[in-house]
C-alpha cells in the first residue's frame, strides 16, 4: 500500500481532468508540523491550539504562543497556515484551567463562547497571532460560532489588539479570517456572516453531533448516525451554495474528509479544500488524483437526491 501511494507524494492534488483541490492537514502539536513535508500536503487547514494547554501547569503567555506560531510558519516555508483559536470546554481535562463542571458540556461554555467569556485569554492569543502574522501569512478561524453578533464581538477585540500593538510600536500582519461551521445555526446564519469572512471550514464532527443531537463520543449512536447521511449532505450543500453566492472559499476539516471513499462526492459538491488527518493524507490525495471531476459532479447531483442512507451509500459505491 505504501508503495502504491508513494508516487502521489510529490504530485499536485488535482483530478485526472485538471480540477484542483487544496489538500491540507489537521494538526495538534508542533511535532506534526515538522513532519508535514513527508505527508504530501499543501499546508495546515486546522491547527488545534488548545493542545498547548494539555500538558502545562499554567496558561501559555503571549511570548510563548508567538514563538510557537513563528516556529510553525518557519517550518511551513510559505505553505498555508490555519490557526483555530482555542476550543476550550468542560468536556476537556485541562490541568491549567479549572473549568466549572456542566451538565451538558457540549451545549455549554465552549469554543468561541468560552473565549468571549474570557476576553483577556482570547486577547493574549489574538495578539500573539497578529504579531506572528508579521512573519508570514496566517489564516485565523474561530470554533463554534453561531451568529453574527459573536463575530462583531471577536472582531472588536481584534481591533483593540491592533490598536494596542500600534501604540506599543510592535509589528503585526493582517490575517485572513474564517469560522468553523459546527452548528445548524451557523449554517442558517451564514449569509449574514460571510461578508465579514475570507473563508469558512466545515467541522463535520460537531456539525453532525449538533444536527443529529447525537453525542459524537457515544459508541451506541455511531451505527444509526454515521459520519455522512442525507441530512448532513444537505447541510454541506447549503453551506456551499451560500458561500458560492458570495465567493467565499470553503474547506472541510472534520473526520469525514479523511475517508478516501467520500472524496469524489466531496469534490463534486464543490469543496475547495480538504483538511485531513496526516495519517490519511496520501490516501486522500490518491483518491483526488484518481477522480474524474465531471463524474464527481454527477455523483454529487445523484447523492443529493438520495432520501435514505442506503441509497446514498449506493451512489458512493457505484462511483468506481
Ligand atoms: C469538527 O468539529 O469537525 C472539528 C474539526 O473540530 P474538533 O474535532 O476539534 O471538534
Ligand atoms: Mg469541533
TrEMBL record:
Gene Ontology biological process terms in this record: phosphoenolpyruvate-dependent sugar phosphotransferase system
Cofactor: Mg(2+)
Catalytic activity: L-histidyl-[protein] + phosphoenolpyruvate = N(pros)-phospho-L-histidyl-[protein] + pyruvate
Keyword list, A-Z: Cytoplasm, Kinase, Magnesium, Metal-binding, Phosphotransferase system, Sugar transport, Transferase, Transport
Binding site for Mg(2+): 182, 206
EC id: 2.7.3.9
Record-level Gene Ontology MF annotations: kinase activity; metal ion binding; phosphoenolpyruvate-protein phosphotransferase activity
Domain PEP-utilising enzyme C-terminal as annotated: residue spans: 5-291
Major location (coarse): cytoplasm
Active site: 253
A cellular-component GO term for this protein: cytoplasm
Residues at which phosphoenolpyruvate binds: 48, 84, 205-206, 216
Keyword Transferase among record annotations: yes
Protein's cellular compartments: Cytoplasm
UniProt record similarity statement: Belongs to the PEP-utilizing enzyme family.
Function as written in the Swiss-Prot or TrEMBL entry: General (non sugar-specific) component of the phosphoenolpyruvate-dependent sugar phosphotransferase system (sugar PTS). This major carbohydrate active-transport system catalyzes the phosphorylation of incoming sugar substrates concomitantly with their translocation across the cell membrane. Enzyme I transfers the phosphoryl group from phosphoenolpyruvate (PEP) to the phosphoryl carrier protein (HPr).
Name of the protein this chain belongs to: Phosphoenolpyruvate-protein phosphotransferase
Lineage summary: Bacteria, Pseudomonadati, Pseudomonadota, Gammaproteobacteria, Alteromonadales
Residues of the full protein shown: 248 to 567 of 567
Amino acid at each position: 500500500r505504501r508503495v502504491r501511494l508513494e508516487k502521489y507524494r510529490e504530485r499536485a492534488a488535482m483530478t485526472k481532468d485538471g480540477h484542483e483541490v487544496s489538500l491540507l492537514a489537521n494538526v495538534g502539536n508542533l511535532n506534526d508540523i515538522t513532519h508535514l513535508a513527508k505527508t504530501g500536503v499543501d499546508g495546515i487547514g486546522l491547527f488545534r491550539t488548545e493542545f498547548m494547554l494539555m500538558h502545562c501547569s499554567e496558561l501559555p503567555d503571549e511570548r510563548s504562543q508567538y514563538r510557537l506560531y513563528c516556529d510553525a510558519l518557519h517550518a511551513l516555508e510559505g505553505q498555508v497556515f490555519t490557526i483555530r483559536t482555542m476550543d476550550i470546554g468542560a468536556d476537556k481535562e485541562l490541568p491549567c484551567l479549572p473549568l466549572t463542571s456542566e451538565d451538558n458540556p457540549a451545549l455549554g461554555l465552549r469554543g468561541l463562547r468560552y473565549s468571549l467569556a474570557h476576553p483577556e485569554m482570547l486577547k493574549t492569543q489574538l495578539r500573539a497571532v497578529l504579531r506572528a502574522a508579521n512573519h508570514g501569512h496566517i489564516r485565523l478561524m474561530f470554533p463554534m460560532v453561531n451568529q453574527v453578533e459573536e463575530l462583531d464581538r471577536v472582531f472588536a477585540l481584534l481591533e483593540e489588539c491592533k490598536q494596542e500593538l500600534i501604540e506599543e510600536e510592535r509589528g503585526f500582519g493582517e490575517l485572513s479570517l474564517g469560522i468553523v461551521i459546527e452548528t445548524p445555526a451557523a449554517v442558517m446564519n451564514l449569509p449574514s456572516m460571510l461578508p465579514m469572512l475570507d473563508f469558512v471550514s466545515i467541522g463535520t464532527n460537531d456539525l453532525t453531533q449538533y444536527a443529529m443531537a447525537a453525542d459524537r463520543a457515544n459508541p451506541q449512536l455511531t451505527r444509526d448516525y454515521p459520519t455522512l447521511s442525507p441530512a448532513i449532505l444537505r447541510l454541506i450543500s447549503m453551506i456551499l451554495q451560500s458561500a458560492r453566492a458570495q465567493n467565499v472559499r470553503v474547506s472541510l476539516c472534520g473526520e469525514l474528509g479523511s475517508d478516501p471513499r467520500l472524496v469524489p462526492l466531496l469534490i463534486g459538491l464543490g469543496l475547495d479544500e480538504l483538511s485531513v488527518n496526516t495519517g490519511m493524507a496520501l490516501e486522500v490525495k490518491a483518491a483526488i488524483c484518481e477522480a474524474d471531476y465531471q463524474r464527481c459532479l454527477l455523483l454529487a447531483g445523484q447523492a443529493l437526491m438520495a432520501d435514505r442512507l442506503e441509497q446514498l451509500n449506493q451512489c458512493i459505491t457505484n462511483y468506481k
